[in-house]
Design a protein that fits this description.
9 helices; AsnA_fam; EC 3.5.1.1; asparaginase activity; alpha/beta; 18 strands; asparaginase; binds asparagine; L-asparaginase_C; four-stranded parallel β-sheet
Length: about 325
């Protein structure tokens, strides 16, 4: 029988009502006790790593999760991580960069209602996550939620209450759970030839700015004074950056000349950005911005924090940003 480690980190799934609102309190083993269908599926072991609302998850916690999963994978056949939904897409992206060449599944899940709530989605999500971990055909980091299996580098939380909380952005989901069976979208990639690596270094000095019509250029310039080492701009449509009146281009140019990379992505959920279509994109390209293509904001931020943890060489940061590590750039 396969051995799977459940790493619990908190989130709504583990929460109970308090006078201060929902707070994570329930342990991994107590959650599993509530799911009799897990009996006989695999041998379950437990690590209570954290008990946080995921709004409190920061890059330090990504590194703790990565190192706990890395240690576990030399012993266990897979890892299930229960996690709050609010920042799960960031954690999944970060773990995808920190843990490379996975030969086994690392599956994140959570819920919109606490596991002890009679209408909870948590029991089904945990059961489905274990099904994917036991199945073992998918090697890598995945989010399993409401029957969808989403690669960790392209997930986004798109609903704050609906059970169908996550979407696979610009990529097909890796599969689904249909009638209790794991059904994959396509033939899984063969496991990597290299051995699993843990590289949990990071630098959180990445600023994300969402443009509104009329954004002041001074906001962009302030990034350097505040010590940010990279800036991500969620621009309009295909990646349009204003180039008249409150033009942002001189401020962007100034950051780049200080060796602070500026990455442009889109505020649209689907289809990514393309800076070659409109002059508001072409001018941004000429100012030296990097284009995020079809990567999600969550993946861009996690990737940049991870890259900044490896190097401070500007050219190397750029080449690492455009390198495809796990399928985040080239559709796999
Ligand atoms: N559904 C959830 O898990 C939301 C919760 N606030 C969290 O992210 O921890």
């Amino acid at each position: 029988m396969k051995k799977i480690l459940l790493i619990s980190t908190g989130g709504t799934i583990a929460s109970t009502p308090t006078i201060n609102g929902l707070t994570p309190t329930v342990s991994g083993s107590d959650m599993v006790q509530l799911i009799p269908e897990l009996e006989g599926l695999c041998e379950i072991h437990y690590t209570e790593l954290l008990n946080l609302d995921s709004s409190n998850m920061q890059p330090e916690e990504w590194a703790s999760m990565a190192s706990a999963a890395f240690t576990a994978l030399s012993i266990f056949d897979g890892v299930v991580i229960t996690h709050g939904t609010d920042t799960m897409a960031y954690s999944a992206a970060a773990l995808s960069f920190m843990l490379q060449h996975l030969h086994k599944p690392v599956v994140l899940t959570g819920s919109q209602l606490p596991i002890e709530d009679p209408g909870t989605d948590g029991k089904k999500n945990i059961l489905d996550a274990f099904r994917v971990a036991v199945d073992g055909r998918l090697c890598g980091v995945y989010i399993v939620f409401d029957g969808l299996i989403i690669p960790g580098y392209c997930a986004r939380k798109t609903c704050s209450r609906n059970f169908h909380a996550f979407e696979s952005i610009n990529r097909k989901p890796a599969g689904e759970i249909v009638n209790d069976e794991v059904v994959l979208t396509s033939e899984p990639e063969p496991p990597a030839r290299e051995s699993l690596t843990l590289n949990a270094n990071y630098d959180p000095s990445v600023l994300l700015i969402k443009l509104v019509p009329g954004t002041k250029p001074e906001l962009i310039e302030a990034a350097a004074d505040l010590g940010y080492r990279a800036v991500v701009i969620e621009a309009f449509g295909l990646g349009g950056i204003p180039n008249v009146r409150r033009t942002l281009l001189p401020a962007i140019h100034s950051l780049i000349s200080q060796k602070i990379p500026v990455v442009v992505t889109t505020q649209c959920i689907h289809d990514g950005c393309d800076l070659n279509v409109y002059d508001v994109g072409v001018d941004a390209s000429k100012a030296g911005v990097l284009s995020a293509g079809t990567m999600t904001t969550e993946a861009i931020v996690a990737k940049l924090m991870w890259i900044l943890g490896q190097t401070d060489d500007f050219q190397r940061i750029i080449s690492m940003f455009y390198q495809d590590y796990i399928g985040e750039i080239n559709k796999k």
